Amino acid sequence: MRFPVSLTLSRVSTSGNSLFSWLLLAPGMLFLAAFLVVPGILLIVLSLHDVDGMLMVLPTYSFSHYIEAFTSAGYIRALGTTLWVAALTAVLCVLLAYPAAWLLVSTRSRAWRTVLYVILISPLLTSVVIRTFAWIVLLAQNGLINDVLRRLGLIDAPLALLWNMKAVIVAYVQVMLPFAVLPLATSLGEIPAALPRASQSLGAGAHHTFLHVVLPLTIPGMMSGAIIVFALAAGSYVTPLLIGGRLQPLLPIGIYQQALQIANLPLAAALSLTLLVVTAAIAGLMSYVQKRWERRVYGH
Amino acid sequence: MSAIDIHGVAHRFGDLQALAGVDLSIAQGEFFSLLGPSGCGKTTLLNIIAGFLAPSAGTVVVGGRDVTSLPPHRRDIGMVFQSYALFPHLNVFDNVAYGLRVRKAKGEDVRARVAEMLELVRLSELAQRMPHQLSGGQQQRVAIARALAIRPQVLLLDEPLSNLDAKLRKEMQTELRRLLGNVGVTTVMVTHDQEEALGLSDRIGILGAGRLQQVGTPLELYRRPVNRFVGEFVGHANLIQARANGSGIFEAAAHFSRKGVPLQLASSHAAGGDALFLLRPERIRLSASSTDAQQTNPANPANSVAGVVRDASYTGAELHVTVTLPGGGELVVEAPEANFAEVPRVGAPVQLAWNADDLAVLPAESKGARI
């Protein structure tokens, strides 16, 4: 944020502008420092503390928890599953987001577009816990879906819809879809109308035009959405815990158990940081690919 | 056979009648311009020819085939957009190849045709550049190469030069003439810039208020406009409403050579009755007048008048002078700057004169379509 703000201010006044812009930034910076940077450092320090047999934190330091994290087959598998589920969720969200974004962009009436936006972001207006319990009501053995299917005579015994990874992914997709739709809609809306027309005038039908003009030009929007969804899904623990159950091999559940049930805080810290770094690295890589593409196409 | 036949094409946007029954025939290989002010319906007509809009009424026939109900991609019409509409994610080569690949042309044919097109627009060495790395003029040449690569029956140009700066516009005009002259493709250009239209076109259709006001060669439109709209829109014009006084002389209604004495006009194009005369500013001769000259003038000679400079602007090649007549009314004069020793000062007395042949006649105000 600092860069654009000081740029704007330097046009207004030439003297003392940097002090003024720093003053404007100070509250936000202090907030971030107090609630993000300091806890982050504390977390790093905590992850390096040794623990004794009773899991009491010792004043000595080592990499023992990281060694445990990277040598335990369980944690490595959990990390892999977490990344895989997050990636799958991101892909599903982007695929499902496309028709929704298309509808948003092609809606001419402002009133209707507002209605659609409200519907789109409505999942974000409820708390994660309530939303998750709603899924339980739907998916449980005696839940709404099983009930309806049984009354219709389509099934004899209830289906196991809950307590598995499929249910977790369904719930993820439902709540994270707006994060994929919004950047995609922006990307679609920025395509000048003349481009699809140019494609048509060169003999391409709607299908060819979509694949060769529209789809490539929305790569930045798809990437932005995918990055957000991936990062959110990789770090989520309430939804998988309630819908998937505590036995699902997902790293956030393992961290939750280490921190709140087993109370091995240094190990929980080490696992958290591992997940954070890996997720950030993947998101950073996706972001780099996106920036490369944008530089190639738009030159900036 | 004509390349394009437009029969009774009309279009409505809600309550707005954008086009009201246009009939037009464009010959094979012709460069035809649709010229008119913004909102006259010219872009609507172009979009109807291209297929982006379906007309409310009428038919469009291209190369003997009725394409009215065909979608744009099956019309075989090349189009150059005002914004050029190059695909930003494709390099110059792939942009030009786009239409050929849609047609599933073989790789070597695509390469040969793209090379040929890039050579035509003199951009061979920039084939690997991305559109954002090109100047406006280069982007436009790529857009032309891309549209021509598919060997369209008709090429449509939508305000092709409007995004270029003045100097480049002149250059591209010459370049367009050379390019399209080489290819010989039937071209329809939409523009609001009359200089562009006059300079490039074989024929021009003047559109005003959704109707074709006049179709003709640039010279016909300039010298013999059929109504006030065309007279005023193409070039600059002094319009003088006048009435015959019975002795072969017309008396102006709003131009007076002295207080209460109407300006006397003699035209070789009008016989009698009411007439609306069009006098081109460059046809008026302007000379500095001394008070003696005014005194020695006969009482009221036709086609000559004394006046006072109200405004003079120097454009480099020409001088534009607005002259107020002593009894009321104004005439605008344009003359090569070489005719003047210095720019006339505001308030300076001048003498104006013109030939009877230069007073073109437009249909009288009451009958002419007032637009």
Structural write-up:
The complex is a heterodimer of chains A (about 300) and B (about 375). The two termini of chain A are about 20 Å apart. Helix content of chain A is about 75%, strand content about 5%. In chain A, helix 2 crosses helix 14, helix 8 runs antiparallel to helix 11 and helix 11 runs antiparallel to helix 14. Chain A contains 14 helices and two strands; from the N terminus they run ααββαααααααααααα. In chain A, a hairpin with a 5-residue loop joins strand 1 and strand 2. Chain A is mainly alpha-helical and about 300 residues long. Chain B has about 375 residues and is an alpha+beta fold. In chain B, strand 4 and strand 5 form a beta hairpin. In chain B, helix 2 packs across helix 3, helix 2 packs parallel to helix 4 and helix 3 crosses helix 4. The longest helix of chain B is centred in the middle third of the chain and has 18 residues. The C terminus of chain B is likely disordered. The interface between A and B is medium-sized, with 21 and 30 residues.
